[in-house]
Structure formats: C-alpha cells, structure tokens
C-alpha cells in the first residue's frame, strides 16, 4: 500500500471511529433517559462500528508493511482479515440486540419512550448516511475491501436507525392516543434492528472469507492484462495468464512464447519488459512472474512495430 493510499484510508478509519463514538454516546444517553429499547439497540450498533473501525485501522497499518521473509507477497490480506473481524462483531451485536428485545417484549412494556428520542435518531440517520457515502466511494477508489466492508456497516446502521425511528414514533403515538399496544413497537423495532444486523453480518462474513482466499480473476477481468502483454515487442503469444487477488492488489503469473532462436539474455529482457509494463499500466498489480517458452519454429514470428513500448536488440526485429 503506497503512502497516499494509506493516509486516505487511515483518515477514513478515524472518521468512522470518532463519528461512531459520538453517535453511540448520544444515542446511548438519550435512549436510557428516554427509555427507548430501539434507540439503545441502535446505540449498541454504533458502538460495534467503533470496534469495527479500529479493526479496519489495524488491518490497514498491517497491510502497509513491506514484504518480508515470512510474507514474501506482502501483507495485503490483513485488510481482508480485518473485514472478517468487523463482520463477526456485527453478528455478535445482532444476537445481543435480539435477546434484549425479546426479553423486553416477554416482560411487557408499561410506558412509551420520550418523544425527544426521535431527534437523536434523525441526527444519526444524517451522519451515518454521510459516512457511508464517503467511505464506500473512497474504498472503491482505493480498492480497499476493509473500507468497503466498514462502509456497509454504516449503511446497515442507517437501516437500523430507520427501524428505530418507526418503532419510537409508533410508541410515541400510542402514548398520545392512549393505545398501550403501540408501546410494543419500540422493542419490536429493536428486534427488527437485530435481524438487519445479523443479515448484514452474515453477508459480509461470506464476502470477507471469499476475499481472503486466493482466487484468480475472471477471463474478462484479465483481458486487459493479456492485451497489454500481446503488444510488447518480442512476445509472440500469451500461453497462459493467471492473476491472483491478494488482498487489495493482484499478483500475475504469466507464460509467454518468444522466438526460440534468440539468446537467453534477449528472452530475459522480454520477460523484464513484460513485468515492467504490467506494473506500470496497472497500479493494482504488485508483482509479476514471467515464464518464457520457445514458440513453435514453424510459425511466422510476430514483428511488432511499436517501438515506444520497448526497444532492445533482437536477431529477428
């Protein structure tokens, strides 16, 4: 991870930490004084986001470390591991919120929450949506799975705040119209929040595990890589190309065919040019391993004329 990418991602993580901490405190205090189960559940959700943002920050800092003897391909998967931690936190919080809401419904609800709880929920909606838009767009631009996962946490918090808003508003109406059955809308909203959190957490766990495991890019995603290599002088054809996602970056394994009558030095120069061009044109490519094969001598050899890409001695060009 380059310094600029890390600085932007780290700033976004700190925005999440500070923003969620303020919201969790606000909703927790208001939820307690207003006696709102839905708002307390929403506060717990924001508190989990604080821990999630810390996990993202730790993952980003680990991913910034350069390759070493134990991690020759770098530490890019640390972001994916951080995403898994965030997802598990969502699941745990979702279960706890659900249990609390069920207990409240089972024991009975004697009074509605105070109306000023609606103000805290409205503030939460605006702040969380702004944080989602900021982190999601930045995560896409930086190709950071950890930031994107953390952004979806904010979006799930928006949904939970909407559910809390509906529950508290319904319970408040029940108070004004003396309909005590509407009081149950508040803990029911808390239960609905828990289901939203669990669903989001489950989806993010699946996505994070998929990202953590090595898998190759699909053919259409690797097509630009192949096209770039085919234009390099001295490369007759690309026999095979496998681009493996490794966290936020890609490692390319490629087999190329060259004129079998050129020298070993010339073949090495071609391979080096292939690596340099791929890493120069595609910023998400962190390393390239090139295997050079001799091409069938009976095939008419390619003679590229694009001298801007590369210029080296060759007995056929």
Automatic annotation (TrEMBL):
Identify the keywords attached in UniProt to this record, alphabetized. Membrane, Transmembrane, Transmembrane helix, Transport
Q: How does it sit in the membrane?
A: Multi-pass membrane protein
Q: Does the keyword Transmembrane apply?
A: yes
Q: Which InterPro entries does this UniProt record tie to the protein?
A: Cation_efflux, Cation_efflux_CTD, Cation_efflux_CTD_sf, Cation_efflux_TM, Cation_efflux_TMD_sf, CDF_Transporter
| Segments crossing the lipid bilayer | 12-32, 81-102, 114-132, 158-177, 183-205
Q: Enumerate the spans annotated as Cation efflux protein transmembrane domain.
A: 14-209
Gene3D superfamilies from the entry?
Cation efflux protein transmembrane domain, Cation efflux protein, cytoplasmic domain
Q: Does the keyword Transmembrane helix apply?
A: yes
Offer a single GO CC term for the protein.
membrane
GO MF terms held by the record: monoatomic cation transmembrane transporter activity
Q: Which residues form the Cation efflux protein cytoplasmic domain?
A: 218-295
What does the UniProt entry say about where the protein is found?
Membrane
Q: Which family does it belong to?
A: Belongs to the cation diffusion facilitator (CDF) transporter (TC 2.A.4) family.
Protein name per its UniProtKB record: Cation transporter
């Amino acid at each position: 991870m380059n310094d600029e990418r890390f600085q932007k991602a780290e700033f976004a993580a700190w925005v999440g930490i500070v923003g969620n901490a303020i919201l969790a405190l606000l909703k927790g205090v208001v939820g307690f004084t207003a006696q709102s189960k839905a708002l307390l559940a929403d506060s717990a959700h924001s508190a989990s986001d604080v821990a999630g943002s810390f996990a993202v920050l730790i993952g980003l800092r680990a991913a910034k470390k350069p390759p070493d003897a134990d991690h020759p391909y770098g530490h890019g998967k640390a972001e994916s591991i951080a995403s898994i931690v965030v997802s598990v936190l969502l699941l745990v919080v979702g279960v706890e919120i659900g249990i609390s809401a069920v207990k409240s419904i089972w024991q009975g609800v004697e009074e509605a929450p105070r109306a000023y709880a609606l103000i805290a929920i409205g503030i939460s909606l605006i702040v969380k949506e702004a944080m989602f838009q900021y982190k999601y767009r930045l995560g896409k631009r930086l190709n950071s799975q950890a930031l994107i996962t953390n952004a979806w946490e904010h979006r799930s918090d928006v949904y939970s705040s909407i559910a809390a808003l509906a529950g508290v508003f319904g319970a408040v109406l029940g108070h004004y119209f003396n309909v005590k059955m509407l009081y149950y809308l508040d803990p029911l909203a808390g239960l609905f929040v828990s289901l939203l959190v669990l669903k989001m957490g489950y989806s993010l766990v699946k996505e994070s595990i998929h990202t953590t495991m090595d898998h190759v890019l699909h053919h259409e995603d690797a097509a630009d890589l192949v096209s770039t290599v085919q234009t390099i002088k001295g490369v007759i054809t690309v026999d095979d190309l496998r681009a493996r996602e490794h966290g936020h970056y890609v490692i390319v394994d490629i087999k190329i065919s060259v004129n079998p009558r050129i020298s070993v030095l010339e073949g090495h120069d071609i391979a080096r040019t292939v690596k340099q061009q791929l890493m120069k044109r595609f910023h998400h490519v962190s390393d390239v391993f090139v295997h050079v094969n001799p091409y069938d001598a009976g095939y008419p050899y390619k003679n590229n004329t694009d001298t801007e890409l590369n210029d080296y001695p060759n007995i056929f060009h």
